[in-house]
Design a protein that fits this description.
Layout (H helix, E strand, L loop, with lengths): L3 E6 L7 H14 L3 E5 L2 H6 L3 E4 L26 H14 L3 E6 L1 H12 L4 E5 L15 H21 L3 E6 L6 H10 L3 E3 L7 H13 L6 E6 L5 H12 L3 E5 L11 H19 L5 E6 L2 E6 H6 L6 H10 L2
Parallel strand pairs: 1-2, 1-4, 4-5, 5-10, 6-8, 6-9, 7-8
Antiparallel strand pairs: 2-3, 10-11
Length: about 325
Amino acid sequence: MIKTIGVLTSGGDAPGMNAAIRAVVRAGCELGMKVYGINRGYNGLMENDMYEMHLRTVSDIINRGGTILYSARSDRFKTEEGMQAAIRVCRERGIDGLVVIGGDGSFRGARDLSLRGVPCVAIPGTIDNDIACCDRTIGYDTAMNTVVEMVDRIRDTTESHDRCAVVEVMGRGAGYLVLNAGIACGATSILMPEVPFDFERDVIERMKRTQRSNKVHFVIMVSEAIGGVDEMAKRIQKETGVESRATVLGHVQRGGSPTAADRILGSQMGYHAVQLLKDGIGNRVVATQKGEILDFDIFEALNMSKEIDLGLYKMSNEISI
């Protein structure tokens, strides 16, 4: 019987992680479990940096961005020595299972702990939305809305001066954030790693075509996996005559109060994770597909692939001229 669990956040922070932590703590306490909050991800687990959490420990955090447990990436944890250090701490604390909130790198750590006898349930928390088994990850909706808000502000000044804004959007190696935010912002061109592009054809010629229909200001949105927005802006200005500016939105996209959608999703996933551990089930990834909360074997989840919606990309090209 699972009597004591731990919860940690690992990798990049994402709005809505606190909602998931809150749900884990309260669901666990309601089941009579002892719940430890582990600081700074797997580093804190190896170093025994944790504290017992109660119902009121997680009051008033559902609206906060970031993670109250802090986060970190750990090279040491990837080694067998680091893994064994974490397992020793779990035994010393009497931890029967772990909830790990993070991205695919965090999932691999959860998988390795599960294989060594510590049941783990992973929850996808990442603004990149690049977890294959999951339609929507915690933090993605908030980040997308943040991008839209920031680009709307950039558009105001771009329109005032008849300029072109070249905006770099986060997402690591995935284009979900830049594609969907780009559609919502009416970007003239969207450049993302999943779709090969020709800069002359897909940016310069598109701009010139729209100029012939009297368009005088532009927004070009570029995935961080492609980068090079400063050089793009210089080339656009040289070849089109449109004054151009580059903007890297950066880590503003990770911060801020989570949207209602991310608060609800985090709560659902955190609750589901505790129900799995209650039944002694580990080595799982919680996911959402078609609005339903479900779970997958962690090996299966890590081997899945996720494809971008090329229909959305085609639509964006046809309606943003």
